[in-house]
Design brief:
Layout (H helix, E strand, L loop, with lengths): L3 E7 L11 H5 L23 H6 L9 E7 L14 H11 L5 E5 L2 E5 L1 H7 L1 H7 L9 E5 L4 H13 L9 H16 L3 H11 L8 H11 L2 H20 L4 H16 L1 H4 L4 E5 L6
Parallel strand pairs: 3-5
Antiparallel strand pairs: 1-2, 3-4, 5-6
Protein name: BTB domain-containing protein
Family: Belongs to the Tdpoz family.
Pfam families: BACK_BPM_SPOP, BTB
């Protein structure tokens, strides 16, 4: 609610009577209240010119009066609501391993997690973790074709909705590519789109072949467009590059390798095996 002020300029009269208000004499638009604000203060910057005031009937023996009615609204008390910190609580749950009921063996490393959290975030984990298993066994889940660091980042996203940033190094780009593949593998569409967008800014002659493989395997439409744009703009320099002769063969080899091993890669990579009470 804005502060409003009704202002009246009046001159004192010798006979004690009140002359008409300035608003009555000079009002152009019929307004009883005005919002007054000048450089953070309130009031009319040029309420009346000095020469106009000296000639007016409001000045009497160098004296004039200004009557003002000021309405000051009361500010309602407000409560500052802090931002959500749910991700911190879930992150602590993952780190503390309290209440974990499932273990994963990935790249020689063991990870503990909570079935319900994984199932709530990933339809693939939900299907795998709640399928019927033999009773009387403690299950360890082995995940193949994935690095431990990638699975760790994947768990971090599942629990906190936070993803690791990537730099411009070759290893960082490879990590982002693996995270995109892992996100698609477990139905984490948000994470997949995040890294698809990031990889669009990391396309060069060294990475474009693997990017195209990602496009073909994981249906990355935006990344495909970015690769096409890059190849269209850089084709002449690539052809003139002494090393460009290996570009086509490397791409063909990468795609061919992907095709030859497609059945192996697309196989169910989660295997249930007896767990021997080892510490995580």
């Amino acid at each position: 609610m804005a502060t409003t002020t009704a202002t009246t300029l009046a001159a004192s009269a010798g006979d004690g009577s009140s002359p008409p208000s300035r608003s009555t004499v000079t009002t152009i638009a019929a307004q009883a209240y005005h919002v007054l604000k000048i450089n953070g203060a309130r009031g009319f910057e040029n309420f009346i010119r000095r020469d106009e005031l000296e000639r007016s009937e409001y000045l009497n023996d160098d004296y004039f009066a200004i009557a003002a009615h000021v309405i000051i609204p009361k500010e309602k008390p407000s409560v500052v609501v802090p931002p959500s910190n749910m991700h911190l609580h879930y992150g602590d749950l993952l780190v503390s391993k309290e209440g974990t009921d499932v273990k994963f063996l990935v790249g020689g490393e063991m990870f503990a997690a909570h079935r319900l959290v994984l199932a709530a975030r990933s339809p693939v984990f939900k299907a795998e973790l709640f399928r019927p298993t033999k009773k009387g066994t403690i299950d360890a889940i082995q995940i193949d074709n994935m690095e431990a660091r990638v699975f760790k980042a994947l768990l971090g996203f599942i629990y906190t909705d936070i993803w690791p940033e990537i730099g411009h190094g070759k290893d960082n780009v490879a990590m982002a590519q693996q995270l995109l593949a892992a996100a698609d593998r477990y139905g984490l569409q948000r994470l997949k789109f995040v890294y698809e967008d990031k990889l669009c800014n990391h396309i060069d002659t060294c990475s474009v072949s693997t990017m195209l493989v990602l496009v073909e395997k994981h249906h990355c439409c935006k990344l495909k467009e970015a690769c096409s744009t890059f190849l269209s703009s850089m084709s002449p320099p690539i052809v003139e590059d002494p090393n460009s002769s290996i570009f086509g063969s490397e791409l063909e080899k990468t795609v061919s390798s992907s095709e030859n091993h497609r059945s192996q890669i697309n196989r169910t990579d989660i295997r249930i095996q007896p767990w021997q009470n080892a510490d995580v």
